[in-house]
Structures are given as C-alpha cells and as structure tokens.
Amino acid sequence: MKKRNLIKLLSIVAVVLQFNSHLVAQETNEQNAKNAEVKAKRGRFFDWGNYAMFVHWGLYSQLGNKWEEKTYYGNSEWIMERNMAHIPVDEYKATARNFNPDKFNAKELAQLAKDAGMKYIIITSKHHDGFAMYHSKCNKFNIVDATPFKRDPMKELSEACKELGLGFGFYYSHNQDWTYPGGTSGPKVDHEGNPKTFDDYFNEKCLPQVEEITRNYGDIELIWFDTPGRIPAKYAKQLVEVVHRNQPGALVSGRVGFNMGDYRTLGDMEVPLTNIDGLWEGVDVTNDSWGYAWYDQNWKTPKQILNYLISTIARGGTYMLNVGPDPSGQVPEQAQMFLRLAGKWIARYPQVIYSAEASPWGHALPWGDVVVNDGKLYLTVFDWPTSGKLYLPGLESEIVSVKLLTNSKPQKLNFTKEGRWTVIGLPCSAPEKLVSVIELSLKGDIKVDNTQSVDPEFGLNLSAKFSTPENGKVVNKRWMEKFGEWKQKHQVGDWNENTNVTWEFDIKTPGRYFIEITASGSGPRVWNIKTDEGREIQNRQNTSTIYHTQPVGWTAFDKAGKHTVTVRIPDGERANTSLAAIKITPFE
Fold first, then answer.
1. pLDDT tens for residues 553-563?
2. Region(s) of the chain under CATH 2.60.120.260
3. Which architecture characterizes domain 368-449 according to CATH?
C-alpha cells in the first residue's frame, strides 16, 4: 500500500474512533446523569415518609417459639440458637417440609401497611437461620424448593407494593447463618466433613443471594443488613458495592457495619430522648417478639404506636414498626386493628408525619411533643390539660396564629405570653381520643430556649440523661426482659460519698413542689435533695433490682425562673445505685 493511501486510511480510522469515542462518552455521561438522578432520590420514602413496616417472617414463624412441647420466651426468630431451644441444624431444616403458609396474601399485607400510614415495607429475605423466603437459585434451603408452599412470596409482595405506591426492600442477615457451613455460628464443616470458612459461606451463599435480591425484585427502597459482628470490613464493602451497583436508588442500613451504611440504625426498641442529626431510624415491635410467638399478645395500642412514631420523628428520625405473620402467613388480627386505627389518625393529620422534621426543643415536653413542617409548629398533645391551658415553654418566635386541628374546621385558639411561657387557651375536652394537634404559624425563623421546664399542671420527669453528675457518670443501661426484648434507661451509676447529681430547669410559678426519684439497686439508702435556694429534704428508701419511683418529699421555690436541684446519697448502699430520673410535681 502506498504511503499516501495508508495515511488516508489511518485518518479515516482516527475519525471513526474519535466519533465512537464521542458516542461512548455521550452514553457514559447520560448514564452518569441518570445514575445521579436516581441517587438524588435515594431514601425518598425513608426521609420523607418517616414511617415503615418491618416484617419478620420465616421458617421460625411456624414454630411460634415452641419446640418439643416447650415454650421459649423471647425473640422467636432466635429459637434455633443455643441460648433458646438449641435446635440441631438437620432437625431445624427438616421443619421446612411442614411450612405451608397458605393464607399469605401479598396484597392484603401491602394494604395493611398502606392503611397504617406506612410508606414502605422491609421484609426478611434471609434471617440468621439461613432460610431464604424467596426463590434463591444458589441455595435450595428456600421457601420454593424446600417447602410445600412452592411460591415466591417476595415476588408477590414486591409487585403488590408497586401497585399500591409503596416502597419495598429486604432484610438480609449477612454475617450470621446457623445452617450453612462457614457462616457465623453455623457448622464448621460440610456434609462430607470438609472444613468451611466464612469466606466459603460469603462467596457461595451470601454474596450471590444479595445479588439475587437486588436484581430480581424491581426497584428496592433499601437493604437492611444485620449483626455484622466481627467480620472483616472487606465483606461489608463488597455488599455495599453490590447494592449500589444493582440498585443505585437504594439505601444500605447502618448495620452493614464499619460505618459503611447510608444511614444510622439505633438499638432495637430505642426512642432517643434528645435530637439526633443526620439520617437515622428507630426499629420497634408491635408486641414483644419480632417473629411470631404463639403466646405474645402484648400489642402496642394505637396511642402507643403514635407516641413512639411521633417521638421518633420529633427527635429527627424515621420509625420502622415490625409485624410477625403467624404460621398461616397472616398478621395477627389485633395487631392489624391497632395499626389501622393509628393509620386513620395519620390520615387526618398527615402533616405531623410526612416530611415532618425534628422539634426545635430537642426533647419531649411534659404533655407531648412537637414537630416542624413547612415552617409551622405542630404540638402533639398526648395528655390533655384539665386546667384549660396548655403551657409552651421557651418559644421566642412571634406567633401569627394558633389553631386546634379537628375533623372539621380548625378552631382558632387564644394565647398569651407570660415571660418565657406561651399560654394557650383550650376547650375542656380533647378533640381526639388518641393525640390532639395544635398548629402554630410563626413570623420569621423558629427560635426556642430549650431549657427543661416544669409544667404548671403536669410537672416534669427529668431523665438522668439531662443531669450533670460530679464523681459519677451517666450511662445508657440496656437489659433484656426476655431474650432479645431490650429495655433501656439512662442512669447515673458509680456512686460514692462524693457523688452529686444536678439538674437545671425552669419554674413558671413560685410555690411548693413534690420530689420523687426513680432508681434501682439493692438495700436501703438515704436520698438527700438540695435546691439552689438552700432548701434541703431527705428520706430513706429501700430499692430493688427493678426500677421504682419513690417519694422523697416536699420542697419550695421562692422565685420564678431557672433553678437547680442536687441529689446525693449521704448514707446507705451507694455502690449498686442506679438513679434514672427525678420527678418534680407542683402543688395543685
């Protein structure tokens, strides 16, 4: 080929390559822009909806916390574990032959979530027992291949959620797998006796299953990983990358570990006492157990559901409330009823829930709580004052209007300013049996003095969280009432003869006040309480390992405004004392 022709040919090739490169770059830019748009919508239901349904449903549901005629109390999804029934792997896997939840109806479950006011559903695709509640192609221990049910309920539920405009996502236990060789707390060898490691489990089952649930069920709201334990960070990193690659619009829960999640998940059944910044969620149960337990009828009432929901939103978070379908695949009837009753309230006051933001007070108030939406304050009144007055402390912004929201027309309320207190006139009876709502429109920015304040009617119950200890420390104490049923209290421990615990608060009206303490321990101790005005009261009380509220006595404050009380133990059993709160009640 002549040199001139070769140069001409090379020029043509260069133009073609440049054109193709331009097309590839254009396609890449378009894809990047599309991914950026999807990522921008990541967590839309989470951040805007503020309320979700968690579903713990699996092979354990048919056992209902009973094994070999013995009932085990606690989280039913843990019944296989050695601290519960300690069921051998082969025996547990054999129960799949009888698992046939033939009354499961995906549309009914999705409709329940919608009726309850929830905006998305997160359901267990695989819990610690290793049983997949969907048709997994990489492992036969799943609801389609191992049971007579023979259907993929996750496919049905994802479609039902899409039809109703709900988000959908999965729980996946990425660390613990009690039935697959190599999984944490699982067998150490396979059926042939070959040693297996966590790396084997991760690459043979965990990673392929996360690929499956993020590829085969449409758009995913989030993937809720759980209990990372001590696995190396590289495994969590791979899982996060898989989720974000396959589902760029999905969030990854903080429990994936190593601060790699897109948001933070608090401890089970935890509602914080003070605001938390950033994206976070609280997870809770409708009764005591996450999975179905035959005996567990301790359902949260509609008012309790709303209390926990609103309190979580008021602290800046999202609330995910769990249900545990029974062996037939249905949510227990009373749980459904209470969820729907709470949902009817939400339908009347959606502005209190959806897109609502944290309270500027940063903590609850004696009669209820506050959320912000579109620049307005919404006072959610759990305990209706009998005095005909609602006392709102510390609001410094100018009020334009105050309205009591009702089923019909909002009712305008009168209000006055008395020092740092806004006093709102109320009708004698609450318009709502569950939670009444008062809307405050303000002029300009919201400004609040968030000092804890003793309500003239309800008084004030002050957690140790708000105290300042000297020669002691505040610790969030957690314990299990039953296996997996977590309770908690902030408390002051490590007491000695030099320990002093002080609270600051505001008093609207001078006068007499009754003081009580909430504490646990063993043996008697003497409580001494001294005010900043020099008054001192003292009382000897016995305590037990269970927290009790006990009287100390009456004191008085001569002036309105900010005061302190200081608690000490001059005599008695100090070392094991746990002081959780002090209560201040005005004389009627």
1. 999 999 999 99
2. 460-586
3. Sandwich (2.60)
